[in-house]
Design goal:
Helices cover 41% and strands 22% of the residues. The chain has helices at 46-59, 117-120, 124-131, 134-159, 162-179, 207-213, 227-240, 294-299, 301-336, 342-356, and strands at 7-8, 12-15, 18-21, 34-39, 65-68, 76-81, 86-90, 106-110, 190-192, 196-199, 202-205, 216-221, 245-250, 253-262, 267-272, 284-287. It starts with 6 loop residues before the first strand and ends in a 7-residue tail after the last helix.
Length: 363
């Protein structure tokens, strides 16, 4: 029996401009009840604690939104418990989280206390050596991503004209009239989440999240980067009609949309590319490439092909640098792990579960 996919989004992205954070959108501060901000260095058990609390929440039948690390998607940077209006987040750099209402809502949990300070003292030099080169790997990855993004922008400029933009706008208007009924009350709320990430495993998209939240999926088959032009119309139309929307930017261009989800309508619009195809059978498929300027595509065919090839190679180089950084981080954690009191970590996980999953009313 196949297990139901989990809801997984990223709040940080390895982007052309460096680490791009959406952690200010972790949870609505006006409605939050409990937020635990974890502090502590490498290997001290932050992800372990969050996984333990998430497992207990699922055992109680509660929904869990997982926020994996964009550098290492097997590790967690946060979990959100919507029904409890609660969250736990790794508040260490680069995803620093500042409390909006400290003490009343947010509380710090110091997992650094789980280190064996005396035991680690003699290994100080080894730890410092293991940290060397880590930041350099990320800097190189970001330079490669920046170059790839410049090429992608040049590629888009070749095939987009005002006529193309108008054609896409008309198509979006038709979809909205067919799929998006006006809801009650005011405009819908827009939340931002990354659905995809550039990781040490390569570029990933959490299409399982789409499957979990939405039954009807429009696949925007897109080679040239035209989906953003349609998604902006779809997002604004759905929100104006009173529906809450999850806007998913591209990690390669955080100012551009890559996917849009409208869970209240069980409706999603996802970008599918040759590098990251949507492999399920969609509700509808839209060939965005067919909307590009045909004369420009014909005239620049060789240039477009070359641009895609070079951009892919640059992303591959970035992924290689992220993999080197991951190997260094693994080595650092291997040094720390024997000096972490994991019994204490699990005890803190039990305390956190009691605080967040207790019998108070979810409201």
């Amino acid at each position: 029996m196949a297990t139901e996919p989990k809801v997984r989004f990223y709040l940080g992205a390895n982007s052309p401009g460096g680490f791009f954070s959406l952690y200010d959108q972790l949870i609505d501060p006006a409605g939050a009840e409990e937020v635990l901000i974890l502090k502590g260095g490498a290997g001290c058990g932050k992800s372990t604690l969050m996984k333990a609390v998430a497992a207990q929440a699922e055992e109680r039948g509660l929904q869990v939104e997982y926020i994996p690390c964009s550098g290492d998607p097997d590790s967690l940077d946060a979990i959100v418990l919507p029904e409890r209006r609660a969250a736990i987040v790794d508040g260490t750099a680069p995803h620093v989280v500042e409390p909006a209402c400290p003490g009343a809502v947010e509380r710090y949990v110091n997992l650094g206390d789980c280190y064996d300070h005396k035991g680690l003292k003699p290994r100080r030099g080894e730890l410092q050596e293991a940290m060397k080169g880590y930041k350099g790997c990320y800097a190189r990855a970001y330079r490669c991503l920046d170059a790839a993004a410049e090429i992608a922008a040049d590629l888009r400029a070749l095939v987009v004209t005002p006529a193309v933009e108008a054609k896409i706008a008309r198509r979006a208007k038709g979809i909205l009239s067919r799929e998006v009924r006006r809801g009650g009350g005011e405009g819908g709320r827009v939340r931002q989440r990354f659905l995809s990430a550039v990781t040490h495993k390569g570029p990933l998209v959490e299409f399982g999240t789409v499957e979990r939240l939405c039954r009807r999926v429009y696949e925007l088959s897109d080679t040239y980067g035209l989906s953003h032009l349609m998604l902006t119309h779809l997002l604004s139309g759905a929100a104006a009609a009173g529906h809450d929307v999850i806007a998913c930017p591209s990690p390669m261009a955080p100012d551009r949309l890559e996917h849009v989800l409208v869970p209240g309508l069980s409706l999603a619009f996802v970008t599918s590319s040759p590098a990251l195809p949507y492999e399920k059978r969609p509700y509808r498929r839209i060939r965005m490439d067919a909307m590009a300027d045909p004369e420009a595509v014909r005239r620049n065919k060789a240039r477009l092909r070359f641009s895609r090839k070079v951009s892919a190679a640059l992303v591959e180089e970035a992924v290689d640098s992220l993999a080197q950084a991951k190997a260094m981080h693994d080595n650092l954690e291997a040094i720390y792990n024997p000096y972490v009191d994991f019994d204490r970590v699990h005890a803190l996980a039990g305390w956190a579960a009691g605080e967040l999953l207790g019998d108070r009313e979810a409201g």
